[in-house]
Amino acid sequence: MALLTEEDVRRMSGGGTRGPVVVRAGEVLTPAARDWLREKGVEVVYPQGQTEGGERPSARYRTISGAVLSEKPEHMTHLKGNILVDKDHPRIAFRGCIDSLEAEILLAQQTCAGAGYPTLAQELEEVLAFVRRFIRFDVLDEPVGEIELCGYGPAELREYSHYPEKHLGQPHFMPHYTDSPAILAVNKVRTVVRRTELAAYAAFRDADGGVKRPDMILGLNRLSSLMWIMMIKLKAGKYPREVK
């Protein structure tokens, strides 16, 4: 049986900024890890039949088709609790896109801060916190809730991104290699957001082409709008720049 230490759960939850922490079969939280998770308010998901202390009547796993397995095959991973799916399952692919999106946001923050745009880097921190919640939305079936990002509600995000010249004095433009590193970094984030939105549709669509999680798709769609607004504001010189 493997022990999950406080250091382990800090890493798994991004220092308490995202959740849930999924305890897999055969893993047990140390007392220090449990105390830290409670203090930070991080959700913990246990395998079906396992308690906080690690006791479980059976070490078996189940697949989404209902098959029972005594051990986890290497080609499978946890969807939720002790439910296993193949690693190319659309929900797992979507979670991988979220991971890639987080990494791209961090790189954009580094670029923007280095280019003298601390305000933009801080706005991207708010974006990062929003994106990190999507794993929780998925695993725990939590609703996205009201969307407000960097002071914009969903209607404003759509309006400003569609009519930037009206609201920000800068028309739509095609990114070019001569644009600033900050613009190109935010543009890269925008493209990864769009790819993640498509992965979300693949993960949550039903047999009739509808979607089971329209709130998640809407959230990603509006996030894409925000990335375009940030690019427009950079192009228009709306962000204060600190020259070192």
From TrEMBL:
GO terms of molecular function: ATP binding; corrinoid adenosyltransferase activity
Domain of life: Bacteria
Gene3D superfamilies found in the cross-reference section: Cobalamin adenosyltransferase-like (1.20.1200.10)
One GO-annotated biological process of the protein: ethanolamine metabolic process
Keywords for the protein's UniProt record, in alphabetical order: ATP-binding, Nucleotide-binding, Transferase
InterPro entries associated with the record: AdoTrfase_EutT, CblAdoTrfase-like, CblAdoTrfase-like_sf
Residues annotated as domain Cobalamin adenosyltransferase-like: 71-233
Protein name: Putative ATP:cob(I)alamin adenosyltransferase
Annotated organism of origin: Pseudoflavonifractor capillosus ATCC 29799
